[in-house]
Specification:
This protein is mainly α. The protein has 20 helices and no strands. Keywords: Ion transport, Membrane, Sodium, Sodium transport, Symport, Transmembrane, Transmembrane helix, Transport.
């Protein structure tokens, strides 16, 4: 009996050692806790932070550019423009053009140098924007902003391409959200700093010089530290590289695939992403470009208070994005939700809750400042759930073609970024009339609701057959 007990104890001890050894190997197989993929994510975060700061700074900046009392310095030039909404939409004139080509080029040749060139051109256009305003008026600013939009059109397809190579599926919500949440964080930074700088002695021109300088600094950083994927990184550990590539089901040195454009354009899940992204972009850019005007003309806040209050909803959006992404990955990794269900649940939260808040905002009186601010915080802040919805769904349905997919949907859907401010200019003829703003809020809420319904019905979390079309074709021919 004693011998049997000793044998049992020895067996349990061996099993315990095996489990501990296996846990150690599993931890080792992931590479360092802060690996090279995390370092790359930080660089991408900085890129999108700066890109969004540049994209957004005109929303507050144009208030200062057209207000002689905005700056302490009486020598800062100001202008009397009646086409401000058209100026605000000019960024998207260029932005939508290169998206599809940018995704294809990034997939074909690697995105690194396209990103460096794009941010370089964007920053230089920003440096010359004050001169363009002085020489050519609002049309000069439109030209500079269109060029900035053209260059930034390369950013999101290229980043999606990089994320598809660097981020394992089990970390996709968290790391993808971390990178893309730099957008709202950049919005916060931009609105706050733009308001402070524009009201200072240096005035609104310093806004464009500052953010453009940051963009050029990022170009030098990424030129040195950026990599097109794990296999291109000179110091990544073999464990981390294997973990990333094995979890994604491929090695980067495999032959490049041709893009199945016909299958993409006839895919219901792709159309679901596109239409949902279009609805989201309509609401997002309506609020982003017009909140400062609403705060200034209906709520009567000055430029400093306006910039702080306009930034508050986007700070909440940034914070909540991490909450939603952690919960989303938790549900997927513990098999509570499938990837598809998770994307639909969080997408619905991110669109329907803001839609309800906008309905209530439309019935808010002009003297109910606190209620209006609270509803704007809810409408924008809860919208962060979409980072775990359609925003990462391209990588779910086709990791091999995530870059071109993002180019297609992001480029086409951002037509709404052009149309939405123009619709505001058409419908809001008196910026001080809350009844006219009510129409904008109700319209945006309806579009949000329709976009959410489309994704619930037609969205998918499954890898589509055309993701590995060439591989599947070879297997069939061999059979």
């Amino acid at each position: 009996m004693d011998g049997e007990k000793n044998d049992d104890l020895e067996m349990k001890q061996i099993q315990s050692e095996d489990i501990s050894k296996k846990e150690g190997e599993d931890e080792k197989s992931h590479g360092p806790k802060f690996g090279k993929r995390h370092g790359q994510m930080l660089i991408y975060f900085l890129l999108i932070l700066i890109a969004y700061s540049i994209r957004v700074n005109l929303s507050v900046g144009i208030v200062a550019m057209t207000d002689p009392t905005a700056s302490l310095n009486p020598n800062i030039p100001t202008y009397n423009w009646t086409d401000k909404s058209i100026v605000l939409s000019a960024f998207f004139w260029g932005y939508i053009l290169p998206q599809i080509a940018a995704g294809w080029l990034a997939n074909r040749y690697g995105p690194k140098w396209f990103l460096v060139g794009a941010m370089g051109v964007c920053s230089l256009a920003g440096l010359f924007l004050p001169t363009m305003a002085a020489q050519f008026g609002s049309r000069g600013v439109m030209a500079a902003r269109a060029l900035q939009g053209l260059s930034q059109g390369f950013i999101f397809p290229s980043i999606h391409n990089l994320l598809a190579k660097w981020v394992p599926p089990g970390e996709r919500s968290r790391l993808g959200t971390f990178v893309y949440a730099a957008g709202p964080f950049g919005t916060v930074v931009s609105m706050l700093l733009t308001g402070l700088i524009a009201s200072s002695w240096y005035g609104w021109p310093m806004v464009f010089y500052s953010f453009s300088g940051a963009g050029l600094a990022w170009c030098f950083l990424f030129s040195y530290y950026g990599c097109d994927g794990p296999s291109h990184h000179p110091t990544i550990t073999k464990e981390e590289q294997f973990y990333i590539e094995n979890s994604l089901g491929h090695a980067e040195h495999k032959p490049r695939m041709s893009t199945p454009w016909k299958k993409i354009f006839t895919s219901l899940p792709v159309w679901a992403i596109f239409l949902t992204q279009s609805g989201h972009n309509w609401g997002f850019w309506t609020l982003l470009t017009e909140i400062p005007a609403y705060m200034g003309h209906v709520m009567n806040f000055n430029i400093k208070s306006n910039s702080v209050l306009s930034a508050l909803p986007y700070f909440v959006l940034w914070v909540m994005s991490f909450v939603f992404s952690y919960i989303a990955d938790l549900f997927v990794n513990h098999n509570i939700f499938s990837i598809g269900v998770s994307r639909k649940v969080f997408n619905t939260i991110g669109l329907i809750v803001p839609a309800i808040a906008l309905v209530f905002l439309g019935s808010t009186g002009e003297d109910e400042h606190n209620k209006a601010i609270a509803l704007l915080v809810v409408a924008v802040g809860i919208n962060s759930a979409i980072f775990c919805g359609f925003n990462v769904n391209h990588m779910d349905i086709s990791p091999n073609h995530a870059g071109p997919l993002m180019g297609v949907t992001n480029g086409a859907s951002n037509v709404c970024g052009i149309i939405a401010p123009l619709v505001v200019q058409l419908l809001v003829t008196d910026e001080k009339d809350p009844e006219q703003w009510k129409v904008i809020f109700y319209l945006t809420a309806s579009i949000y609701a329709a976009a959410s319904l489309i994704f619930v019905i037609f969205g998918s979390g499954e890898i589509q057959p055309w993701n590995d079309e060439e591989k599947n074709g070879k297997e069939k021919s061999e059979a």
